[in-house]
Design brief:
58% of the residues lie in helices and 8% in strands. It has 632 residues and is an alpha/beta fold. The protein has three domains: 182 residues, MetI-like fold (Orthogonal Bundle); 118 residues, Periplasmic binding protein-like II (D-Maltodextrin-Binding Protein, domain 2, 3-Layer(aba) Sandwich), CATH 3.40.190.10; 153 residues, D-Maltodextrin-Binding Protein, domain 2. Helix 1 packs across helix 11 and helix 3 packs parallel to helix 6.
């Protein structure tokens, strides 16, 4: 019997360890001195300090807490009253409303999110904090109703009538008789509502705007680059939840042991203390974020540009935050800086009616926006720093004269490899076909990107990566399918950066800017550009046709191209600068990337191509890539 108990305890402990180890791992690495997420290089509080000095994180925490608290209070009140009303309604009404109430719960969140977005667009409501709050209240109410209804069903239907027969008003009957009986259900509903609001990403992403982010949307956009501040933020959240759970579970035990009775006053006092705690935290965060980010507008800016606000939509973790602060200080304006994770998500949000002054999409997406007449010409008189562009960027096929766009960063896609384990002769001989070499089976990463994976396969087969020939695309599919099924690769996204920096695998297909970081962190890593050619990509700044403040947008583009700002940006992000002087200095013998083969893009090679937008091939590649991943 003792052996069985020990075995059960061992199994239980193993299961708990399995579930909680990732949280413990995150907590430990939040104190790591380096950026690495796999190699602990010493104890440090630097990421907590960085988090507390990051206005974006402080704003996200503030908006998350305020939204969650308000949404919980409102949805709990509305949901409880609705549930009580339904319990007294006719059966057919109750059944119909219950079915309607279950729809948002059963629906995929993406459907609900797009529905909210289209609803706001149809009413021409500008998205921001209020739209996010209303959406959170709306999707929390069904969970409260669902939690309260079972408690109401267990009540005697005559309780309220009995109370009113004894002199109670309808309000007193509800608050003094019904509500105390169903309080556990109300509390459960409130906790679920708070959790759903605090944790929500999908709906929040589509219904917010004007720089308003909660924690989940911020973390999503920051996850492209390695940022241990996310670990610090997550650790604080986990510790707060743990302390709360300990208090909730230990206080009743302590009261039972001390044989104290919980009075109404103590309950009210507990509620007041909890509310004051929340208000103190949110108020403190608001004060901190206000103190770390300039909020003052300038009459001079309004007189000069017609506005003191600039809205920018860029990829997450793709700019040195000091640059935006410097622009705000210099011109007396406020920057609303939103971030996206992919060009496709950016396009979806733009189609939903969002208005920005500056976008930073990739080359193929700029082509699409130009075809759909979504962009307006730049004012070159306001952008004299165009002369600073590197020469190869003056011949980009999608906009060779920079009529509509100015390059922001550029680079290539290549193979990062461990020089100790991968034979350079194999790379030179096989190129992309090395990803099918059995010598390296189980030691490769494949990037979970349909465009880049098909680029690799098409180039390996000797085809253009812009082909829309169905036979060639199917050949590329077979190539990828064979590689996935025979080489046992790990298909990953941006976690490949830290994994390769720590030498977890021997090879991976990565973007040159990410390769720059990997090579700077691990001297055993090299960067190889296959002779079959690759994707020579560029991301660029453009101004939408419906931009509210194009004059200020042109000034910002010119600001980004200045030497000092271009240098800060390339040092922070790691991708190749578009400023010719900065590019030459960084890659020169004394530059910060002097010995880094990944930083300087290969130019003038005839087999390198720029991606072009092609709806036919895009759809086919998307479908085939899904099949490739299934084949694994």
């Amino acid at each position: 019997m003792n052996h069985r108990k020990l075995l059960r305890r061992f199994l239980l402990g193993t299961i708990l360890l399995f579930f909680y180890f990732p949280i413990l791992y995150m907590l430990i690495f939040s104190f790591n001195d380096s950026r690495s997420l796999t190699s602990f290089d010493g104890f440090s509080l630097r990421w907590y300090e960085k988090m507390l000095h990051d206005p974006n994180m402080l704003e996200a925490i503030y908006y998350t807490l305020v939204t969650a608290v308000v949404a919980t209070v409102v949805s709990t009140a509305v949901g409880t009253i609705t549930a009580i009303g339904l319990s007294k309604s006719r059966r057919i009404v109750r059944e119909v409303v219950s079915q309607i109430n279950n729809l948002p719960i059963m629906n995929p969140e993406i459907v609900t999110a797009v529905g909210f977005m289209l609803f706001y667009v149809s009413l021409r409501i500008e998205k921001g904090f209020l739209t996010m709050l209303l959406a959170h209240i709306a999707f929390c109410i069904p969970y409260v109703i669902l939690s309260v209804m079972p408690k109401l069903r267990s009540l005697d239907d005559n309780l309220a009538e009995a109370a009113m027969d004894l002199g109670a008003t309808p309000w007193q009957a509800m608050t003094k008789v019904i509500v105390p009986q169903i309080l556990p259900g109300i509390i459960s509903g409130a906790l679920i509502a708070f959790t759903m609001s605090f944790d929500d990403f999908t709906i929040s992403y589509f219904v917010t705007g004007n720089g308003v982010k909660n924690i989940s949307t911020l973390v999503w956009t920051m996850s492209k680059r390695i940022n241990p501040s996310i670990n610090a933020l997550s650790t604080i959240i986990v510790l707060m939840i743990t302390i709360t759970l300990l208090l909730v579970n230990l206080l009743p035990i302590i009261k039972e042991k001390t044989k104290t009775k919980t009075t109404r006053i103590s309950k009210h006092a507990t509620g007041i203390v909890a509310l004051c705690f929340v208000l103190f935290i949110t108020g403190g965060l608001y004060w901190l974020k206000s103190g770390t980010k300039a909020q003052m507008s300038s009459e001079d800016a309004i007189a000069r540009f017609g506005s003191d606000t600039l809205k920018i939509y860029n990829v997450g973790e793709y700019i040195d935050p000091e640059i935006n602060t410097a622009f705000e200080t210099q011109y007396g304006v406020k920057i609303i800086y939103d971030t996206f994770d992919s060009n496709e998500l950016m396009y979806t949000k733009l189609q939903g009616g969002e208005r920005y002054d500056i976008l930073v999409p990739s080359d193929y997406m700029i082509e699409r926006l130009l075809k759909e007449e979504f962009l307006q010409p730049l004012n070159h008189d306001q952008i004299p720093n165009l002369i600073n562009l590197a020469e190869p960027l003056n011949t980009l096929s999608y906009d060779p004269d920079h009529t509509y766009s100015v390059p922001y960063f550029w680079g290539t896609v290549g193979i990062v490899y461990n020089k100790n384990n991968v034979d350079i002769e194999d790379l030179e001989k096989e190129g992309y076909n090395i990803f099918k070499n059995q010598k390296y089976k189980g030691h490769i990463y494949m990037y979970d990107s349909e465009r880049d994976s098909f680029m690799m396969a098409l180039k390996a087969l000797g085809y253009s990566m812009n082909t829309d020939d169905e036979n060639q695309l199917r050949e590329a599919y077979e190539w990828l399918k064979e590689a996935v099924s025979t080489m046992d690769p790990e298909i990953v996204t941006d976690e490949v950066i830290d994994a390769m920096a720590n030498g977890n695998k021997d090879m991976a297909l990565v973007y040159s800017g990410d390769a720059t970081y990997i090579l700077s962190e691990n001297e055993d890593m090299g960067y190889f550009m296959p002779k079959e050619g690759t994707n020579l990509w560029s991301d660029a700044m453009v101004i939408p046709k419906n931009a509210p403040n194009p004059k200020l947008a042109n000034e910002y583009i010119n600001f980004i191209l200045e030497y000092e700002n271009s240098m800060k940006n390339t040092e922070f992000v790691g991708y190749a600068s578009t400023n010719d002087e900065v590019l030459e200095e960084c890659s020169g013998t004394e530059g910060i990337y002097a010995d880094n083969d990944a930083y300087l893009p290969r130019t003038g090679y005839e087999k390198d191509e720029i991606f072009h937008y092609n709806e036919k091939s895009r759809k086919m590649i998307s479908e085939l890539w899904t099949k490739v991943k299934i084949a694994k």
